[in-house]
From TrEMBL:
Name of protein: 3-hydroxyisobutyryl-CoA hydrolase, mitochondrial
Cross-referenced Gene3D superfamilies: 2-enoyl-CoA Hydratase, Chain A, domain 1
Enzymatic reactions: 3-hydroxy-2-methylpropanoyl-CoA + H2O = 3-hydroxy-2-methylpropanoate + CoA + H(+)
CDD domains, A to Z: crotonase-like
InterPro entries per the UniProt record, alphabetical: ClpP/crotonase-like_dom_sf, ECH_dom, HIBYL-CoA-H
Enzyme Commission identifier(s): 3.1.2.4
Species of the source: Diploscapter pachys
Described function: Hydrolyzes 3-hydroxyisobutyryl-CoA (HIBYL-CoA), a saline catabolite. Has high activity toward isobutyryl-CoA. Could be an isobutyryl-CoA dehydrogenase that functions in valine catabolism. Also hydrolyzes 3-hydroxypropanoyl-CoA.
Length: 230
């Protein structure tokens, strides 16, 4: 079974010489590397690290430069479920989610610092490996996504909880309200969508005329009865 993939492409079997997950020890640090090809099964070694007095930090990262983790193998899960419905004996659809959720709980309750380098693509179950631990480092190339709802699933791995509680959501809501009540959105819609002259008249017209106070105004708190409540 290949629950997690470091590539958004369909998973394939690795050769014996190319392990899917690498484990390394550097002093009191333990490092997990998703070795570009394909999977991360339930990390039973993490349980040992959690109890070990010789470990004070766990780091998880990915080999390659495209993805941290592109999430679960949805095709394998669906294929297994169809087999079970037809009277087959496949249990991947059950085992996958059981192992994933046990691992997510372990990451979230891990007693040692857990640091994820979430560089590149971080989709679906990949967020569970990155976001719900102690620390998550992102880069300018990090691309986050929870595509489960588009597949007819739901935002699992606790995403419905942590996404709805991000402070940045409240900040983005404030910005959206300032922009909605300002002249530029109205002018932009006129120029691009209504008149389609593609010549918006911004106010102020020049970037140099935008004051610091005006910028700060987009981020200030809204009146209490207008704030986003999470």
């Amino acid at each position: 079974m290949t629950p997690f993939s470091s590539s958004p492409a369909a998973s394939t079997s690795n050769s014996v010489d190319e392990p899917e997950v690498l484990f390394d020890s550097q002093g009191s640090r333990r490092i997990i590397t998703l070795n570009r090809p394909k999977s991360l099964n339930a990390c039973t070694l993490n349980m040992e690290w959690d109890e070990s007095k010789e470990v004070d930090l766990v780091i998880i990262k990915a080999a390659g430069d495209k993805a941290f983790c592109a999430g679960g193998d949805a095709i394998a899960v669906v294929t297994s479920a169809k087999d079970a419905l037809a009277g087959g004996k496949s249990t991947v659809h059950r085992d996958f989610f059981k192992e994933e959720f046990v691992m997510n709980h372990l990451i979230n309750t891990f007693s040692k610092p857990y640091l994820a380098f979430a560089d590149g693509i971080v989709f679906g179950g990949g967020l569970g490996l990155a976001v719900i631990g102690s620390f998550c480092i992102v880069t300018e190339r990090t691309l986050l996504s929870m595509p489960e709802t588009q597949l007819g699933l739901f935002p699992d791995i606790g995403a419905g909880y942590f996404l709805s509680r991000l402070k940045t959501l409240q900040m983005e809501f404030r910005i959206s309200q300032r922009i909605a009540l300002g002249p530029d959105l109205h002018e932009g819609c006129r120029a691009i969508l209504i008149d389609k002259d593609r010549n918006p008249k911004w106010n102020p017209a020049r970037l140099e005329d935008v004051t610091k106070d005006k910028v700060d105004g987009y981020f200030t708190a809204l009146p209490e009865n207008e704030e986003l409540k999470l």
